[in-house]
Amino acid sequence: MYKNETIMNYINALSSGDAVPGGGGASALVCALGMALGNMVGALTIGKRKYADVEPEIRMLMEEAGNLQKELLDDIARDAECFRPLAAAYSLPSETEEDKAFKDARMEESLNTACSVPLDIMRKAGRAIRLQSEFAEKGSLLAVSDAGTGVAMCKAALRGASLSVYINTGMMKDRDRAEKLDKEAEEILLKYSLMADHVFDIVLSKIRKD
Hints:
mainly alpha; elongated
């Protein structure tokens, strides 16, 4: 689902009034696109005499990046699947105390599930940013702007996925669980946002002439 759709079909689905696909899946797609740009840098580096010394490393980076890209594309559908139970829980009746108790329990369970994929997307975006750092450092200078664009997209995905975590933890009644999820998200966001900015600045310094 989704990953084999045309770009236009996915954009139309994203633009619709349906709650899925949403921000988490869109973040996964953006990160996959960013990772593809990293792989492009690698593909334009291997086979070049100037970069023969780093070719084995580049090939390893490309393998890891390719696997990560596939995982992120799968996450587009996973995010939608994990959100659907929450959408269903919202519509449960709450007329009696028994109804309310059942709805609260289902909501709590569904909120926890809805956090799981965007948090995983954040982790993967962090891995993608680390890989972009390697591509920017070791890859062909002729393609370094693509590493910079890629890392900017991965950072956007990281930030976007974080919002999908926070909106769900904010509604949890189990505040201990919510705070634990928030803490992990905050740590990932801080660490890899700073790394992405650093990589972007390095790329910018390589291509700016003034």
